[in-house]
Amino acid sequence: MDDPAGRWQRARDALDAHVAAGRLPGYAVAVDHAGETTIWAGGRMALDDDRQMQTGTRCRIASLTKPVGGALLMTLVERGELALDDEVGRWLPELAAPRVLRDPAGPLDRTVAADQPILVEQLATMTWGLGALFPPCPLSEAMEEWGVAPGPIPPQMDADEYIARIGGLPLAFQPGRAWLYHTGSDVLSVLVSRATGRSVAELVAERITGPLGMRDTGFWCDPDLLPAVYMPAADGLELFDPPDAAFARPPRFEALGSGLVSTVEDYLRFMTALRDGGGPILSAGSVEIMTSDRLTAVQRASSRVILAEGSSWGLNLEVDLTRTEPWTNPGRFGWNGGFGTAANVDPVADLTIVFFSQRMLESPAPPATFTDLWRAAYAEVGAG
């Protein structure tokens, strides 16, 4: 599965240039085109570590956990354990009677009652009323203060404490009115656990990673196997998360927003399962629900602070609707992770690309490391 013939040499050269320039410590890539898989890696585990990144290096995948959460949700739907149009208050009484801010940017004590209940699907479509808020406001500041703000590192509390704190906050918007990123995925973690009486880790292992043979994917791993993660800084790269920190031990909260560690080979197994109709984890119908546009025009307009023009949202993943770049064919689906990860399936080009790195994203826009890889790969297959 290596690339001895150099078919992907342009993509390799583009990424190696980022490593040589000091913009990227290391990376790993898995590409599947027309059923032919190639995996390679470059760079180092850390700036002060001579160990090379390997194709099997485990990386924190941040928001690439979200599509796994969407698939896990659909396993509950298929088994009749819940329905997408169920009210979340059945399992989350903390959210059974939410209050809603009169003004999303206003004071927290000026609220009204929600005019409709929160539905299960709204957690995965991120339209339930709470999430990342821009610019900062009293509600976002309260989320930070209470330790429940969106971020690549899961909340440092157990699931019951997390949902109690979320339930103690007002919503920014009435349920179904607007798209707000991230928080619905973590709330979904609590919901699927309560609905089944199982831990999230058990559910993921039993229903997703186990059937797919994703042996190196889980909510933590030995720190010796993890690379360091860096934040871009004015003078280069600054250490953000060392190997022996948040992902080096079992978490208190198994978060479906950003909690998993994986390898590019494992994650490619997940993405190609979705590409090929879901087996052995889901039916083709469930994959269709996950990967189709689930937003209204109004909801889609409110997503533009995160989602690019021409894209929308399914269940915990992005869906491209129009071709605005060589790689954004209609029907392409996947997502990016804040620790510098990306995974997408393009049925039109018959191309699946998984990319893991340790350089954190600076904004919602795909960084040059992503776009240079995509541009080179699409040029290689004649789809650019």
Structure description:
This protein has 384 residues and is α+β, with helices and mostly antiparallel strands. It has 2 domains: 9-65 and 199-293 and 316-380, DD-peptidase/beta-lactamase superfamily (Beta-lactamase), CATH 3.40.710; 70-196, 3-Layer(aba) Sandwich (Beta-lactamase), CATH 3.40.710. The protein contains 11 helices and 14 strands. A hairpin with a 2-residue loop joins strand 1 and strand 2 (36-46). Helix 1 (9-20) packs antiparallel against helix 11 and helix 2 crosses helix 7. The longest helix is centred in the first third of the chain and has 14 residues, at 65-78.
Helical content class: 25-40%
Helix segment count? 11
Structural class per helix/strand content? alpha+beta
> Can you name the CATH architecture of the largest domain?
3-Layer(aba) Sandwich
Beginning-to-end CA distance, first to last residue: 24 Å
Main sheet: strand order: 3-2-1-14-13-12-11-10
**Mean pLDDT over the residues:** 97
Overview in brief:
This protein has helices at residues 9-20, 65-78, 120-125, 138-145, 159-167, 183-196, 200-212, 264-275, 284-290, 297-302, 368-380; strands at 26-33, 36-46, 49-52, 59-60, 99-101, 111-113, 229-233, 236-241, 261-262, 311-313, 318-320, 333-337, 341-346, 351-357.
